[in-house]
Amino acid sequence: MSFDRIAPHYRWLERLFAGDRLQRARTACFPAEAPRRILSLGEGHGRTLAALRVAYPAAAITCVDASAKMLARARAQAGEGNVEFIHADALTWPVPAGDFDLLVTHFFLDCFPPEQLAVLIPRFATAAAPGAQWLIADFCEPPSGLARWRARIILKILYTCFRIATRLPARRLTPPDPYLVASGFRLKERHHFEWALLHSDRWGRVVE
Ligand SMILES: C[S@@+](CC[C@H](N)C(=O)[O-])C[C@H]1O[C@@H](n2cnc3c(N)ncnc32)[C@H](O)[C@@H]1O
Questions:
Q1: How many other β-carbons are positioned within 10 Å of the β-carbon of residue 100?
Q2: Tell me, what's the pLDDT at 107?
Q3: Which residue owns the Cα nearest ligand 1 atom 10?
Q4: Which of 103, 159, 183, 186 has its CB 3.0 to 4.6 Å from that of 134, i.e. a possible disulfide?
């Protein structure tokens, strides 16, 4: 799996097909209280990073991505500052325990099939400090009606294209909610966009 091939095209494709809608979902649940340490997994081309740096200028940000070309774009978009760029596979990267008070996985968890989400989410839950929050902007499938059929068609096209272009391991969308709950997180805030094709979530780690 590699996003290197599509890295040069990701931004203009997003602009063409989604305008500013994905970015609205990426930023909709930014917490009011500034985090100190942020971990962005599958950061990609750096649009989330740029918004995080504007919203939380004092935060230390770690971006992990398996695509060197995506990371290069993120670096060019956001500059260096207090940002660490790590070229690694999130499935095997050694997770620093309890270090981060904000985790961000925008349009990233949708890359994985259920058996990988079951490994990935508990692994990264261990990186969350007590009281940490986890932001997720992603696609979703509405429960019924025309919106459900619309989403199914769009998701089928997206997964087919991404599987060809990147050898994405996932064949379809798996909701990450049960894995987050099992890892000690609870949903605090959720917004839907675009006929509920997109959602933006803020999850909070349960403090025992
Ligand atoms: C669909 S793109 C999303 C990019 C960006 N977060 C956004 O909001 O558009 C998925 C990103 O996750 C990265 N990625 C996919 N699988 C990964 C893995 N196992 N480890 C690290 N990064 C991964 C890809 O290289 C790509 O940059």
A1: 25
A2: 98
A3: 108
A4: 103
